Amino acid sequence: MGDISNVPIDYEDEEIKTALEEQGIVEARRIRRKNEGRGEDIRTNMLQLTFKGELGQKLTDRVKLGFVSHPVRPFYRSIYKCKKCYRLGHLQIFCKSHPWSAPAWMKSNNEFYGQGYILGEYYQIWADYFASLFIFPTSDV
Prior knowledge:
Elements: E1 2-4, H1 13-21, E2 25-34, E3 41-51, E4 62-65, E5 68-71, E6 73-74, H2 123-135
Antiparallel strand pairs: 1-3, 1-6, 2-3, 4-5
């Protein structure tokens, strides 16, 4: 797969597909982005192209669309970053981590991540701290 940019937004998807079929392109799809706060997609000037042929085959250098020749770049999918735990590879809706984890020195495995549990002597300290995270925003401090 590859992508091209600077494609005018007023070109319709069907026009683009028809123009690119004879150049060995199986599918052409406009890349869209979310409009913050409105919930609607915005068309960008970029297209994602799927080429005919073997997987791993070298991409075509350029593609003609209308009277313009566009350079083709390899398409790289975005890496997801969780907004809950800030780890890569999953989204917040699929996150399995706790909202806050105790410091490593309070846990049995002495690591921030992993399957350790909070040691008995630190349990009440951590519980008080964790509860304060929810109480503090509601107070007028």
